[in-house]
Design brief:
The protein is an alpha+beta fold and about 600 residues long. The protein folds into two domains: about 240 residues, Carbamate kinase (3-Layer(aba) Sandwich); about 325 residues, 2-Layer Sandwich (VC0802-like). The protein is about 30% helix and about 25% strand. The strands form five sheets. An eight-stranded mixed β-sheet has the order 3-6-2-1-9-11-12-10, sandwiched between helices. A hairpin with a 2-residue loop joins strand 19 and strand 20. The chain binds aspartic acid (ASP) and magnesium ion. The site of magnesium ion has 3 residues, from loops.
Length: about 600
């Protein structure tokens, strides 16, 4: 007999008939010999409706009252579903988050789960009852017992947290799509269903705009080793399994907040190549990385910052023993890149190499939505007087390229800052790619991002730390942080530009925050652009397979799409393009990696 947590999303419980259908499925699961805990969302678009009501009254409603309001949606569903189960002859009991004992922080509208009490749930389960629990909500453990919510889409997170706390055999997320697809089927008609995906890949996709799963749910599944499956509530198809590394025994204390970082990694076998002042037009990255790939040189990080004038800088890292060839390829390609490019007043393009670098990385699923974690890494390095040359971020990692002589010190201060012990740091394992598998698992599009750039930031340790600390204090999460390669002397000081993306709704707040930072530290202008789209490819198999990024850039080039920014991590490549080209970019890239399925995936309205 298994203990199963099932979560049903808003569409799956959108009408009385659908609630009755859910009751039937739950009943069948019990009849097959299982114990079941059901977590539900609010019916249909109820939560959106409640948000609208609030905004009809206030442009900026009080967050506590928002939680009071929004938590009512799920309470309706739990009562109705329990009635439907009882009506079908299945004993059931509904419980709110507070009644279960889902203890959260007090941060209204975005609370994180601190602990989950299991006594009451176990008692009901022992009585043979099905438990129907309200998702998305919890209660603060301050004496006031404040009702909190976990953030939009948060009932996935409730479900996985309950599964972790109860040590359930697995957690099923029922939704209106048949599982996790290679792209959003509303935008890419021939998106294909995956049978499985790793948690790390899912984390990237979920946070890059794929909306099937709340990233925090994946984070908990990964940390507690909860087997997770995403399935359709309309069929009995098996869906997509989200696989975790070996299950860990981990205390429930501080469930969502303990230990955002669980390892410090380093790599001293990389060298950096930077191309300065290459033309800002479609096809440049495609040509460069196409050539690099045809030499079978494996590129690790790629970074292209926002353009200056009409030229870009592109920097990348390769394994040290390919540096000579990478440099030769880069120098040889410059004339071809310049062909037909109007001569400008700027200096000529140039190739710059840097041999003695090291990459230090902090890794851990707990850094999602916690902007303070990256900021803490930067300030830790700054306090040790270590300058950061390149930054690359993914959902579960922040990597900094630094001077090789600083590497040992960097590891020591980072282990100390994040409380990682001797054994916790490691050199990333060389994974042998399975070349039979496609290197790319899925493609995601995020149209809800804005690009923020701070011009002419003094090039000295501590500047990135200041900027990201200040943003973290305002709870603004950043993604895709990029420092320009080119230094420019402004009023006698060496400066670089720092650019990154934030959620569109945080764009203005980021601007105001940064304008004050800029004034204080003598930086230049702050530029915000909301008309951008971010397209990303994700896949663990791209590690050690040359040419993956080149294929993505080439696909964009063939559609005449200009790449404004590039950032990569081990398992992801993201490009910023103009907003109105986002959907075409997504479709083109999906096709370029031959991800299409043979039949169309049905998505209900
Ligand atoms: N009802 C909440 C929302 O729409 C939580 C959820 O459905 O996951 O955001
Ligand atoms: Mg959802």
């Amino acid at each position: 007999m298994a203990l199963i947590v099932q979560k049903y999303g808003g569409t799956s419980v959108g009408t009385v008939e659908r609630i009755q259908a859910v009751a039937q499925r739950v009943k069948q699961t019990v009849e097959a010999g299982n114990s079941v805990v059901v977590v539900v969302s609010a019916m249909g678009k109820t939560t959106d409706g409640l948000v609208k009501l609030a905004h009809d009254i206030s442009a900026n409603p009080n967050r506590r009252e928002m939680d009071m309001l929004l938590s009512t949606g799920e309470q309706v569903t739990i009562a109705l579903l329990s009635m439907a189960l009882q009506e079908a002859g299945q004993p059931a009991v509904s419980l709110t988050g507070a009644q279960v004992g889902i203890i959260t922080e007090t941060h209204h509208t975005r609370a994180r789960i601190l602990n989950v009490a299991t006594d009451r749930m176990k008692r009901h389960l022992q009585n043979g009852e099905v438990l129907v629990v309200a998702g998305f909500q919890g209660i603060s453990n301050a004496q006031d017992l404040e009702i909190t919510t976990l953030g939009r889409g948060g009932s996935d997170t409730s479900a996985v947290a309950l599964a972790a706390a109860l040590k359930a055999d697995f957690c099923e997320i029922y939704t209106d799509v048949p599982g996790i697809l290679t792209a959003d089927p509303r935008l890419v008609e021939d998106a294909r269903l995956m049978t499985e995906i790793t948690c790390d890949e899912m984390l990237e996709l979920a946070s890059l705009g794929a909306k099937v799963l709340h990233p925090r749910a994946v984070e908990i599944a990964r940390n507690y080793g909860v087997p997770l499956v995403v399935r359709s509530s309309w069929t009995t198809d098996p869906g997509t399994w989200v696989t975790s590394p070996q299950p860990q025994t981990r205390s429930l204390e501080g469930l969502e907040i303990a230990r955002p970082v669980d390892a410090v990694e380093f790599d001293t076998d990389q060298a950096k190549v930077a191309l300065l002042r290459v033309p800002d037009r479609p096809g440049v990255a495609a040509k460069l990385f196409g050539e690099i790939a045809s030499q079978r040189l494996d590129v690790d990080l790629i970074i292209q910052s926002i353009h200056e004038g009409n030229s870009n800088d592109i920097a990348f890292t390769v394994i040290k023993n390919s540096l000579t060839r990478a440099e030769a390829v880069s120098s040889a390609i410059i004339p071809a890149l310049m062909a037909g490019h109007a001569p400008s007043s700027e200096a000529a393009p140039d190739v710059m190499i840097e041999q003695k670098i090291a990459k230090v990385t902090i890794a851990g699923a707990g850094m999602i939505g916690r902007p303070g974690v990256a900021a803490k890494m930067f300030s830790t390095l700054a306090d040790a007087g270590i300058n950061i040359q390149m930054i690359s971020t993914s959902e579960v990692k922040v990597s900094c390229v630094i001077d090789q002589v600083d590497c040992d010190r960097a590891i020591a201060v980072l282990c100390n800052a994040f409380d990682i012990h001797e054994s916790g740091y490691r050199i990333p394992e060389a994974t042998l790619p399975d070349v039979t598998e496609t290197p790319v698992r899925g493609v995601a599009l995020d149209l809800k991002q804005a690009r923020v750039a701070v011009r002419h930031v003094p090039d000295r340790p501590g500047m990135a730390a200041k900027i990201f600390q200040r943003l973290a204090e305002h709870n603004i999460s950043v993604d895709m942080i990029i420092q320009s390669q080119r230094c420019r002397v402004v009023n006698g000081t060496m400066t670089r530009d720092i650019a990154f993306t934030v959620a569109q709704m945080d764009g203005e707040a980021a601007r105001t925050t940064l304008e004050s930072v800029a004034a204080e530290f003598g930086c230049g202008e702050v530029v915000v652009d909301s008309a951008i789209a971010k397209v990303s490819i994700v896949g663990s198999n791209m590690v050690g397979q040359p040419g993956v990024a080149a294929r993505m850039f080439d696909a964009l080039f063939k559609k005449g799409i200009n790449i404004q920014m590039i950032a990569t991590s081990e398992i992801k490549v993201s490009c910023v393009v103009a907003e109105d080209q986002g959907i075409v970019a997504l479709q083109t890239i999906h096709a370029a990696f031959e991800l299409s399925g043979s039949h169309k995936v049905q998505v209900s309205a």
